[in-house]
Amino acid sequence: MKTIYNFIRKTFVITDFEIRKIAHDPTEILLRAVQPALWLLIFGQVMARTKVMPEENYLDFMSPGILAQSILFVSIFYGIAIIWERDLGITEKFLVTPTPRTALVLGKAISAGIRCIPLMVIIYILASFLSVNIIWHFINIIGVISLLFLGAILFSTFSLIIACLVKTRERFMGIGQLMTMPLFFASNAIYPISIMPGWLKTMSHFNPLTYMIDGLRTLMIGTPSGFSLLIDYTVLLAVSTVLILIGGGLYKRVVT
Amino acid sequence: MSIVETKKLMRRFGNFTAVSPLDIAVESGDVFALLGPNGAGKSTVIKMLTTLLPATSGDAFINGCSIISNPTGVRKNIGYVPQLLSVDGTLTGYENLLLFARLYDIPYKQCKARVMESLELMGLEEAAKKAVHTFSGGMVRRLEIAQSMLHRPAVLFLDEPTVGLDPIACKTVWEHMLKLKTLYNTTIIMTTHSMAEADYLCNTIAFMSQGELVISGTPQNLKDSLQKKGTTLEDAFIHYTSEPLSKENNYTKDSTERDDIKTKE
Fold first, then answer.
1. At what angle do helices B93-103 and B137-149 cross, to 10 degrees?
2. Of A138, A140, A154, which is closest to residue A219 (Cα–Cα)?
3. pLDDT value of residue B243
4. More confident of the two residues A127 and B163
5. Does the beta carbon of B44 lie under 8 angstroms from any beta carbon of chain A?
6. Predicted pLDDT of residue B265
7. Is A98–B75 a contact, with Cβ atoms under 8 angstroms apart?
């Protein structure tokens, strides 16, 4: 019991200080909002006019995908912060404290979710401005936030694991770029699974991003889930747990 | 029982032996320095003792806790200041200390008081609310020492604590280190390339070369061991640690010999 309490407490200590960093310098978050805005305002509007997608209202379909994409892009480069902290010697100091490694990993991962909250707010505002049929029910918004956190935890921990393995900023940037677009294109973010070729359809079922988008689409705009919300949450929770355990085991490797 | 004791502690990277089986014992309240040329294995020893790097074989005990079987116990008993100036520049001085106060399990209600006390002790109370990226190198170092001492550890590890600091900042850091040691009877284990620093601060010095412990003793004993009048710690350092260079590159084995030559000229 004491171990669990210690784990939770230390996790939130790390998260608390990540929030303080964002509060001291929020410019990064504002700059990150530009990309989803461009996707919605330019790509979304143009694609909505082409009528090539089977979806009746493409902007409705796309908005949850763009939220998921923003979460992916914020989280997937989280590993670079770990390498940066390693280079500054901060990681070494964390590792000599009596803090569980998994708490260090999860604390950072939760803070990736917190970084995504302002993006969610901006996407909701822009989507409303574009007459997207968003469900404003309290329960649905809580559901979206919980999926946002699960997705951010999953992809930021995945990123941390890559950082622990590759160890240098240069290699990480290359691999980060290499991972992001395949994850994005092999998902249902901007086109439905039904129109994908067979091989891509298979790949999309192994992509956690697909499940996050499926859940977001159900909760944000009421599209019936392709898998069921239970499966979406279960996949994200299970993959996140496995990644946190792996990340906790590998975290110390970043300094050796 | 010694507060720090290593038993055949060894580290190998592939075929390269970074630290040969090492046996050292440090008594409570000592200031102990590991000195040696670059690549001698000093930082590797510190990293093993602070549980950052697993040992290939052997063991070490910090305040009775084994680095192999009880690393969490070791971490509760140590503070660590790495070679790099490593604080979060975005956060304030106060926040940097508060973060570590919480990670070191200081009771929540005592955190603020402990942080303020540490800031005052290190002469940083006026800078508490400023972002750390505005601090000078000396201030950052003092903040780091304060950070590592928040939980009153039995042993403080310092890896080249004054590297890159100007002489005035160095002296300030030394004074604050000694103040902490006197107040809390902390045992200090440090590495440094500054012989003046080692001579001024330490009561025991161990010379390392190519991963091996060459000799250890008090600064005076090490100087006296050369049996030449006016020998400095730097002379002893060169004498005990430069043998491989003297063989390969005709490096003068003992700087006192150079002094003799100068005198004759």
1. 20
2. A140
3. 58
4. A127
5. no
6. 34
7. yes
**Cα–Cα dist A108/A77, whole Å:** 12
pLDDT confidence of residue A256: 74
Q: Is the pLDDT of residue B177 over 90?
A: no
Report pLDDT for A20. 92
B82 touches chain A (CB under 8 A): yes
ipTM of the prediction: 0.85
What Å distances lie between residue A238 and A14, A17, A208, B27, B74, CA to CA? Answer: 23, 27, 10, 49, 33
**Helix/strand/coil for B17:** strand
Q: How far apart are CA A136 and CA A139, in angstroms?
A: 9
Residue B135 touches partner A, C-beta closer than 8 Å? no
- Please, where are the H alpha helices in chain A? 2-24, 27-32, 34-38, 45-50, 58-76, 78-88, 90-95, 101-129, 138-166, 169-185, 198-205, 208-221, 229-250
The residue ranges of DSSP E strands in chain B, in sequence order, are 4-13, 16-22, 25-26, 31-35, 57-62, 65-66, 78-81, 155-159, 187-191, 204-209, 212-217
What is the rounded radius of gyration, in angstroms, for the C-alpha atoms of chain B?
20
Inter-chain touch B82–A97, beta carbons under 8 Å: no
User: What SS3 state is found at B209?
Assistant: strand
Nearest of A234, A228, A202 to residue A215 by alpha carbon: A228
- Which chain A residues are Cβ-neighbours of B44 within 8 angstroms? none
Predicted structure pTM score: 0.85
Nearest to A123 by CA among A209, A189, A196, A178: A189
pLDDT bucket at A57, cuts 50 / 70 / 90: confident
With left for phi above 0 and alpha for psi between -120 and 50, is residue B6 left, alpha or beta? beta
B143 CA: distance to closest CA in chain A (Å): 13
